[in-house]
Every structure is written in structure tokens, then in C-alpha cells.
Amino acid sequence: MTVFHSDGVDINYHAAGTGKPVVLVHGFASSHRINWINTGWIDQLTRNGRQVIAPDLRGHGDSTKFYSPADYPCRLMGQDIIGLMDRLEIESADMIGYSMGAWISSYLMVRFPERFNAVVLGGIGAVIMEFHQRGEQIARALSTPYPEQITQPFLRALREFSELAGNDLRALTACARGVYSDGPPNFQSAEKPVLVITGEKDDVAGPPEKLAALIPNAQTVIVPACDHLTALTRREYQLEVFKFLDRHPHKKASLTQ
């Protein structure tokens, strides 16, 4: 396990490969292993000549767990990633975020435009403007002592997934209430090329076009026959992301170049 100490937070991360750097930001209740190793993303990216940096976000995986929403605003979770890039002397990188990771990525691309080249926002769409409300719904589903009473299929599936993955439900509950508390970033100020990509059956994200319309240099892709929980496992999804990154070659790799 490789750990970066970020202002009182231990961030576990995986780094592999050489070449053009890309930061991978996993989704809620997931980890770098679940989203990016087990699905083959890191293996394929390194084969394609990429340096991959994939952290476990605070509250997730083997990183530090907190139990107050005040420890999970997007600005803090994003700063952990910037600190890790600084530690690894990565001046700028491409970035792929999924679901909550895409929310954090959208904050980073607006707040630190000089640090990111091409950005992929996966698993988010029109529903992004309702994420604060969705965060409270998720928190209640994770904290209830009566999970059999959860009626919404996605929330029930998320609770089951969170438990099967061995997550700390108290930490995830705090994260759900904290990560969306800053509100959406100013998408109109984004400077770099952005791909907004969702699965055709992804009711959690909603249609990508409404979100992409807010971003000056964004395009959309809808991948057929996959939903929020299966998109990252689909080869078609992966190929669309790789094609987008190839169309926007990365010019800088590290502070030492």
C-alpha cells in the first residue's frame, strides 16, 4: 500500500506506468481497486503508454475515514488530489472521474484549470443539479438500521454494494452529506475539453446533454445498454473515453520535464 499524507489525511493510492499522466477518480462507496483495477482500466491505460495515478478518496478504500460531513466538502477531497499530484511532481494530467468522482473532477477542472488537460466526466448528467438532495437520500439509506425498508431500487442496491465492499457505512454517510455541500462549480468557466459520458440506462446520472450544454468545450456520448453500476465494465465505454483522450494529446507530464 502506498500512502500520501495530505494535511492530516492518509490517502492510499496506486501509481503505475510511464508516459502521459492520467488521474482516475473513483465513485461513491467504491475505491481505486473496484473502479479501476478490477475493471481493467489501469491495465489498459498503462499498455497504452499512460502513467496512471488512482487514489482512494478520503472515507473510501484504505484512506482515512472521517465521521463528520465537514470533512468531505468537494474542495477538501479535491485538494487531496492536487496534493498527491504535487507529491508525485505531476504538473498537469488528463483526468477521468466517475459518478461522485466526476463531481469532484468537475470542481478540479474549474478550480485548477492549469493542472488538467482533457477531462472525462462519467456517470453524471442532468441530475447533477439535484445531487445535494440525492446525497441526503443516500445518507439515510446507508444509516438506517432497517435496510429492508429501502424502497428505491438504486438506494437498495447501493446499500448492498456498500456492505459487500466492506465499506465503513458511518464514513460514507458523512461523505454523502458533505461532498455536495459546496454546490455545483461554475461549469461555464471550464477551459479544457470535456467528455460527458453516461450509459443509456443510467437513471442515476440522467441525460448528459443538459450538463454538457453548460460547459463551453464539451461533447456527449451515450453508451448503449448499460446503467450506472455497469458502465465502467463495458468495453464500449472504455473505447469512447480512449478515443476522446487521443483526440486531445497531453503536452506536459511532470514538473521535472
What labels describe this entry?
single chain; 257 residues; alpha/beta; eight-stranded mixed sheet; disordered C terminus
Helix fraction bin = 25-40%
* Overall geometric form: globular
State the strand order across the main sheet. 1-2-4-3-5-6-7-8
Number of strands: 8
Question: What low-confidence regions span 5 or more consecutive residues with pLDDT below 50?
Answer: 253-257
Number of helices: 9
Straight-line N-to-C gap? 27 Å
Q: Determine the strand fraction and express it as a percent band.
A: 15-25%
Largest sheet: 8 strands, mixed
Overall mean confidence score, pLDDT: 93
Helix-strand pattern = EEEHHEHEHEHHHEHEH
Computed CA radius of gyration, to the nearest angstrom: 17 Å
- Which class best fits the helix and strand makeup? alpha/beta
Please give a structural write-up:
This protein is an alpha/beta fold. The protein has nine helices and eight strands. The chain has an eight-stranded mixed beta sheet, sandwiched between helices. The radius of gyration is 17 Å and the shape is globular. The C terminus is likely disordered.
